[in-house]
What we know:
Function: Negative regulator of class I heat shock genes (grpE-dnaK-dnaJ and groELS operons). Prevents heat-shock induction of these operons.
Pfam families: HrcA
Family: Belongs to the HrcA family.
Organism: Primorskyibacter flagellatus
Domain Heat-inducible transcription repressor HrcA C-terminal: 115-336
Radius of gyration: 25 Å
CATH superfamily of the largest domain: GAF domain
Helix content: 40-55%
Number of domains: 3
Oligomer: single chain
CATH topology of the largest domain: Beta-Lactamase
Order of helices and strands: HHHHEEHHHEEEEHHHEHHEEEH
Number of helices: 13
Strand order of the largest sheet: 7-3-10-9-8
CATH class of the largest domain: Alpha Beta
CATH architecture of the largest domain: 2-Layer Sandwich
Amino acid sequence: MNDGQKILGEMNDRSREVFRRVVEGYLDSGEPVGSRTLTRTLSEKVSAATIRNVMQDLEFLGLLDSPHVSAGRIPTQTGLRMFVDGLLEVGDLGDDDRQKLDATLTSNTDDVSNALDRVSAALSGVTRGASLVLTPKHEAPIKHIEFVSLGHDRALVVLVFGDGHVENRLFSPPPGQTPSSMREAANFLNALIEGRTLSDLQREMKTEIDARRQEIDSLAREMVDSGIAVWTGEGHHHERLIVRGRSNLLGAEADEAELDRIRSLFDDLERKRDIAEFLELTEAGDGVRIFIGSENKLFSLSGSSLVVSPYMNSDRKIIGAVGVIGPTRLNYGRIVPIVDYTAQLVGKLISDRS
């Protein structure tokens, strides 16, 4: 039992209902909820003064906050977390939302990339937030690898996969590379590569280089390191991030400070900073996870929330993630089943077309 669940369990029925009504009112309207409003909705008839006392107690516990001079309260990040963990009622996926998401996968002629673009756009449309789809690396066994020099500071790595898929990627090779050292590097890798994926290759590469140091000169060794880093090294993640619905977070009601925070968030996304963290966030457990404000460093500055779910291939291996970004006052009860269903759709899409 975490601290939030413990606090929730120690509340009496009146405090719990006041807390729930304040959070639900805030999530619905985005406005502070006052005691007079609550007197009309609580199941028991109590005075506004009694409700104010309860709200003051909840504020003392760090669950509610007073944003202005008015008597209204809004939930804090801690309060939202406790609500999501202990009181959130998740609804069923609506038929209209389901149909809009299903409609994105009606064509079997598109490649996976185009289909995922449509899924992301539909997810943004039905949630009125910004959608994220992290697409997987191509993890089929590799048949052949080649390095091609394009100049003193540019090179191309060509990967031919066992399933016929071919990928090319530009990168900057270490200084001093020659056509001869590039051939040596490719020969070294091709001797190891048969039947292995890039992830497999990365795990074995350092061991092999150390064991066969005399068989490959320093330039070729650097080339091997650099060429693989293009695909799996930090800062060069091959996963593709699809982002849709930026305008949904830049509504007319946002103030200038909020606009600046949201622009900063999208600048980070476009630079793909910490994008690999999405998978790390989701791998801790199956199903949808909710990150509120500073709980995820990528969204801490913008004060946004992330509702994210992993999706899996036919081998039940997590290979990507689907998510929705929005303000902390998201309609979590509606968004959670939408994200969950979309993750299942994407997993089926990837499995069917692999």
